[in-house]
């Protein structure tokens, strides 16, 4: 005699946006919905998909009857339980999500720009309407880092995290470091291979990393984050020369999203950073992402995986869908959205942070120049860790590299402004921050 | 005017066992219960602690009135919501957990031996009583890998995982590799430093790793696992010679817990394994743990952190306590335990697996020996990737190292039994499996 399984509970999903990630979600549902139903007793049904144009060619085959060009057909459909917003950008995504909550729907989104720049409005709407907002897919695609910070490390105080959170930049930096190609060539390569957009601004100028930093810091430090408070530098100014010198000194150059929760306030910054080769992040290559977290109880942790792409991001969306589906299918009842209570922590101005620094001076090769630089650094309370004078075939411009002990950014800036005005200095001094 | 916060909901906890992990939980509660209440609106109250002896010296200060020597005082206290079992071992832990479920309590445990060896009874009792069982702390301490497999990667099919899941073994192997000390000396060192127990059997012979493998495989492959089906080899037989040769060839030697879900069946095995230096697990040193997971959608992932210790393990216990507390405090209602539905997948016998192999033959230094070995390997369908003959000062015993392409374990065993019987072979041939 066979034991009859209890009937599956149906959860209806409306998808808004059928680009790369949306197509991934459709693929995963097609492939795994059966297995998910067998395992969990939940039948996930894709009820409707809102797209911009019915005519567009798709990455995945979907029955025409599922498509609509009106998001309202999803938002107004009382049978739909979960709205999955995958169109990205601020508008009309914000209105769509707000309307979804108001209409009693749970929401899953991958929209990092919206959450980073206007997150409090969205989280506030969820709390007011007592609905869940899943956003695992907004940071680091397939790596379940949102869940780790929110739940896995729930009792910890996070003191700092360092993240390689943009695959495009990491691909470019990996190519520059491994094959000695310059930024422009490496960018073009990445574009040809589909790892960089035609307009790479958001990626290479650090904006995308800053979006993810805002979301991670909100979760990790449990503070509201004003996006404009984040200091952002991208990778365009990096030259192959400095990447090579860094390598000789035992460092990899990575674009890091850095969050630190200090007693004086939060540090929130995105910039190229040198990491010693024995740091677990220094070996993260190509399109991979990784977040290094220091938690007071759990200690040092690293989460590593694919940060973007159709299926990794779909995996994150599905994780949120399943979490919510379990609740609304009655396995676990959802009483309220139980928002985390946040504080408003102060953000330190960039001038106030302290770091170690890599400095490359291009100077005339004549006696006394190094002494002059060293004196200016000393006067500004900057201690020198090591000096490396490189060979040069041009006596008018010799590279002198100085690694400093921890110093205040304010003092570094002051010293460099003095040094850069000196006649013997031939180019603007290059400065890269160093984390250990 | 101040806005009055809604009153906190109280969740009462009973702790059974006040060893290292139990003391960690008490510490975290002391330090962070206030912050947790502020953030989540949940007041976690440690109601009672059952210990073996009231006289014993403790790692943490607790009011005498909280202590009892009778677990029944906790199991029978109707005000206690969550029972945290931290005594370990099979008995009396199993009875305690079962009784807790029957008395309507939720349970959190760090007991890997019990879950690995008699897990189905425990999971079955939870399901029957419709209670939650949290066991994040049973695998890899501070790394939220249970949550990642259960929820973060919920829609993925896991094809395989490789884990460094025992900090004692990894500390010993790291010392052997970095400082050339032998197993016995490295073990003694680890014991002095508190990284190995006086009786190191469970750790160095791979049993502890196998316990964790059983739990990970159950979650990852969604199959019941019979503990006796796991093939277990420890690190005692490893000699410093082979670790050195491996290094020269570009490999690190690690004790891995390996789970593979193939079409022919599951591979479940714990044994020393060579990993190329560019594999993300090869750089995991000392007491750190890491699990490398391949998921069909999310791709390659790595979870890295402290696998043991007072606070990292307490962090995992707290994560489970908070998950359950959120549900029972009414923020989310718990209707049923919604157990994962499992299958019973076949486990492949060790003879049936395929792998690459490192083989070290100690042979007489005379013509024709290598040819003879190569012929025997060839006859057994084993292809040679590379041969390395090492210098030796003893012509009666020269090491010859052969790396093979993927071959069947059955064939390797057959070939070695032939070769080991040959007069020119002076010691039993060393075999280490290689993962790429």
Task: For the structure shown, list the relevant keywords.
homodimer; 436 residues; alpha/beta; Rossmann fold; Dihydrodipicolinate Reductase, domain 2; Alpha-Beta Plaits; eleven-stranded mixed sheet
In short:
Chain A is α/β, with parallel strands linked by helices. Chain A contains 13 helices and 18 strands. In chain A, 35% of the residues lie in helices and 25% in strands.
Write the layout of secondary structure elements.
The structure is a homodimer of 436-residue chains.
Chain A: E1 9-16, H1 20-40, E2 42-50, E3 67-68, H2 72-75, E4 82-85, H3 93-102, E5 106-109, H4 112-128, E6 133-134, H5 145-152, E7 158-164, H6 167-179, H7 183-192, H8 201-204, H9 207-221, E8 231-232, H10 240-248, E9 251-262, E10 265-276, E11 288-295, E12 299-306, H11 310-328, E13 332-334, E14 354-363, H12 369-379, E15 384-389, E16 398-404, E17 407-408, H13 409-420, E18 430-434
Parallel strand pairs in A: 1-2, 1-4, 2-3, 4-5, 5-6, 8-10, 10-18
Antiparallel strand pairs in A: 7-9, 7-11, 9-10, 11-12, 14-16, 14-17, 14-18, 15-16
Helix pairs in contact in A: 1-11, 3-4, 4-9, 6-7, 12-13
Describe the structure.
The structure is a homodimer of 436-residue chains. With 436 residues, chain A is of the alpha/beta class. Chain A folds into three domains: 9-141 and 311-328, NAD(P)-binding Rossmann-like Domain (Rossmann fold); 157-306, Dihydrodipicolinate Reductase, domain 2 (2-Layer Sandwich), CATH 3.30.360; 351-434, ACT domain (Alpha-Beta Plaits). The first copy, chain A, has 13 helices and 18 strands. Chain A has helices spanning 20-40, 72-75, 93-102, 112-128, 145-152, 167-179, 183-192, 201-204, 207-221, 240-248, 310-328, 369-379, 409-420, and strands at residues 9-16, 42-50, 67-68, 82-85, 106-109, 133-134, 158-164, 231-232, 251-262, 265-276, 288-295, 299-306, 332-334, 354-363, 384-389, 398-404, 407-408, 430-434. The N and C termini of chain A lie far apart (64 Å). The model of chain A is unreliable at 333-338 (pLDDT under 50). The interface between A and B is large, with 63 and 63 residues.
């Amino acid at each position: 005699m066979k034991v009859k399984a209890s009937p599956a509970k149906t959860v209806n999903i409306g998808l808004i946006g059928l680009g790369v990630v949306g197509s991934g979600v459709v693929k995963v549902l097609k492939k795994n919905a059966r297995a998910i139903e067998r395992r969990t007793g939940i039948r996930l049904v894709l009820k409707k998909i809102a797209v911009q144009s019915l005519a567009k060619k798709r990455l995945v085959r979907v029955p025409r009857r599922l498509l609509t060009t009106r998001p309202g057909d999803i938002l107004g459909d009382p049978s739909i339980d979960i709205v999955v917003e995958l169109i990205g950008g601020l508008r009309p995504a914000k209105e769509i999500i707000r309307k979804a909550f108001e209409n009693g729907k749970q929401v899953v989104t991958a929209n990092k720009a919206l959450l980073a720049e206007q997150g409090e409005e969205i989280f506030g709407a969820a709390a007011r309407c007592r609905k869940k907002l899943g956003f695992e897919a907004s940071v680091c695609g397939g790596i379940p880092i949102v869940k780790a910070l929110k739940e896995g490390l729930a009792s910890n105080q996070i003191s700092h995290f360092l993240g390689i959170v943009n695959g495009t930049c990491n691909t470019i930096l990996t190519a520059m470091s491994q094959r000695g190609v310059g930024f422009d060539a490496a960018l073009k390569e990445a574009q040809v291979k589909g790892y960089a957009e035609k307009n790479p601004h958001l990626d290479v100028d650090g904006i995308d990393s800053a979006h993810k930093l805002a979301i991670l810091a909100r979760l990790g430090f449990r503070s509201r984050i004003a996006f404009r408070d984040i200091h952002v530098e991208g990778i365009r100014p990096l030259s192959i020369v400095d990447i090579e010198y860094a390598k000789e000194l035992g460092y990899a150059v990575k674009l890091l999203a850095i969050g630190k929760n200090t007693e004086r306030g939060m540090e929130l910054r995105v910039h190229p950073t040198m990491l010693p080769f024995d740091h677990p992040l220094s070996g993260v290559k190509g399109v991979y992402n990784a977040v290094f977290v220091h938690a007071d109880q759990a200690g040092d942790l690293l989460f590593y995986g694919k940060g973007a792409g159709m299926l990794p991001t779909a995996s994150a969306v599905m994780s949120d869908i399943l979490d919510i589906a379990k609740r609304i299918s009655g396995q676990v009842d959802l009483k309220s959205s139980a928002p985390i209570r946040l504080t408003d922590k102060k953000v330190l101005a960039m001038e106030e942070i302290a770091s170690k620094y890599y400095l490359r001076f291009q100077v005339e090769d004549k006696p006394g120049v190094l002494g002059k630089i060293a004196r200016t650094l000393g006067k500004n309370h900057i201690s020198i860790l090591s000096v490396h004078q490189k060979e040069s075939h041009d006596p008018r411009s010799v590279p002198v590299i100085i690694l400093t002990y921890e110093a205040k950014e304010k003092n570094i800036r002051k010293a460099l402004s003095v040094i850069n005005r000196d006649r013997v200095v031939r180019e603007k001094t290059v400065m890269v921050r160093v984390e250990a």
